[in-house]
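User: Fold both of these, please.

Assistant: Here is the first one.
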Amino acid sequence: MQTIDFNKLGLEDGEYVLDLGCGEGRHVHALYHHKVCNVVGIDLAFDDVKKTWKGFEHCPDLEPGSKRRCTLAVGNALSLPFADNSFDKVVCSEVMEHIPNYRQALEEVARVLKPGGTFAVSVPRYWPEWICWALSDDYHNEPGGHVRIFRTSRLKKDVEATGTTFKHRHWAHGLHSPYWWLRCAVGVKKTDSKIVNFYHRLLVWEITDNPFVTRILEAIAAPLMGKSVVLYFDKQGAPS
């Protein structure tokens, strides 16, 4: 399930791109195959990093001689193990809502991003997320769960305060918001809800097959009730 639009990210062959909070690798894998580039995925959870690596099993591009590169590591967003100005692009999808001191994480992103580089960040959109919180405490009140609901304007100002310029915004996963509302309404830990399980199969079909009908529905639903908001910024300064 890809949230960041790589065309808006502007990734080019040969560039270095960091996926901060890569989880199980959905953006790492997509970035790796999108361009012949150098992808670095980092996450706090070792088990998630292992699952990301497992997703590369039997990948012919990892054979010796490939120009593509992927590096995975365990690390903390508040203290990234990279030198200043290391990356041409940084993506951070559905991570900042989990970090209490997210402004420090944003400062770290700005530090490792090259001047002229692009940062793409996504978080849950305010009003669909608010409905989830209102319907269920279990939705967010879990170890490592969501600690805040972002207003887009607040996040935009905080990222710009690190020395970046806002360039674009869009919404994603419009079909996913009703699914989470249903789960929260019946209980997020409930596993035998027929309507929730049916909707889940619909979302799996959307992700795996990308049929025309769901593409049309998503194009309509994303601006109206997209589960995620995605913001793109350029770091100030001449490209290096």
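And the second sequence with its predicted structure:
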Amino acid sequence: MIKISHTLFAMPFAIGAGFLAASETTHEIPNPIIAFLQIILAVAFARTAAMSFNRWADKDIDGKNPRTSGRSIPAGRLSSGKVLTATILSALGFIGICAWISHIALLLSPIVLLVVLGYSYTKRVTWLCHAVLGTGLGLAPVGAWLVVTGDLSHPIPWLLGTAVLFWTTGFDIIYACQDAEVDQAQSLNSIPACFGVGKALLISKLCHVMMVILLGGLCFEMGFPLSIVTATLITIVLLIIEHLIISKGNLEKIEISFFQINVAISLMFLIAMIFEVS
């Protein structure tokens, strides 16, 4: 139900940010293994809570959409109660991990949950829903930096997190193009439903241009390390390919664009950020 494979969007950036934080901090990390275990568990619990809640909140919407009618609740494989219970347990697990990390992380945990759970209702009220999802994923590297350093005053996690925000917003707009007509019929406010597929794809391109600009800022802030610069240049090529694959009249390859290319980008940055520590 929660598509474990989609964890490959946020998790690599979170783990990579942890390695990046380790390379940049002047403080000794008491137990690196524990720190990375905390990062992995926090992302896993937050994402499970978010996805479970999304499936619960959207059960009626999903049931009216031919593409999503086979999901667990509309198809009758799981009850609403079980999915909501999974959400609550995952949210409590996330709060518990944050309490384990630090007092600051615990204080910030409700804000993170508000973003990742609140996203499920944003499509009902605003076409900025894609940016809310992007914010949720963008918080992953910021949170990982906090785990390792205990400090969020450095610009690097914010540059990386905001780059992830625009990257996610861009590819989520592409993904939503396949549901544009269904969203319009249900009065849902995705960008494709509100502005049309053509304009949505243009907005997606602009989001990805912003991602590249922010990655350029990250490279500048870090002194243009070879691994991060190389990952940024390859990302530019992959994003161009992604937008060449998808066009207004050619949406059948969205799954390739949405999953394969974007997972390649996240894994590539994971490798690049690990390389900075080696």
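The longest helix spans residues 32-57.
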